[in-house]
């Protein structure tokens, strides 16, 4: 897999410092998913993934913020829903979510659940802040940028599960799962756009 241009850490703020190199941009426009995983905290892992979506940012945003549809984007997700629909939260660009997933990788399988606060910056970014669940820590961020006639999606996740998983296994699992998940997301979003 191609490296992500000079991304030395997965600090949420660092990802904006480097745009994709010309070779990475070509790979993205040709349908590749670029990922890079690193150890995070004690026993955790972090991954940054990028994908090009041949859809406008507003169309991608509409699909991403329909959180119940995430079960179609990420095959391991078994449940995804907004659990607090208060208008005061929505006015501040926040939503509370519950997600559950079942993972199987090599000889390891687990069911995880997480409660998150999603902070939305219209058509630009969704930051996911951990409330509680099967992790010692969890943070994620989705960012959307214009690219050619479509959208470049950057997805960063940092997590340390409560279940002891050897770090190399966790890293390998993330690098294998993320490209498939993002390709699935692209396919579902594109199919929906064609039938809209």
Q: Key terms for this structure?
A:
5 helices, 44% strand, alpha+beta, 8 strands, eight-stranded antiparallel β-sheet, single chain, 196 residues
Condensed summary:
28% of the residues lie in helices and 44% in strands.
Word description of this protein:
The protein has 196 residues and is α+β, with helices and mostly antiparallel strands. It is 28% helix and 44% strand. The protein contains five helices and eight strands; from the N terminus they run αββααβαβββββα. It has helices spanning 22-29, 57-64, 70-73, 87-91, 167-195, and strands at 33-40, 44-53, 77-84, 94-105, 108-121, 125-133, 135-147, 150-161. Strands 1-2-8-7-6-5-4-3 form an eight-stranded antiparallel sheet. The longest helix has 29 residues, at 167-195. The protein is globular. Residues 1-17 have low confidence and may be disordered.
Strand and helix layout:
Elements: H1 22-29, E1 33-40, E2 44-53, H2 57-64, H3 70-73, E3 77-84, H4 87-91, E4 94-105, E5 108-121, E6 125-133, E7 135-147, E8 150-161, H5 167-195
Antiparallel strand pairs: 1-2, 2-8, 3-4, 4-5, 5-6, 6-7, 7-8
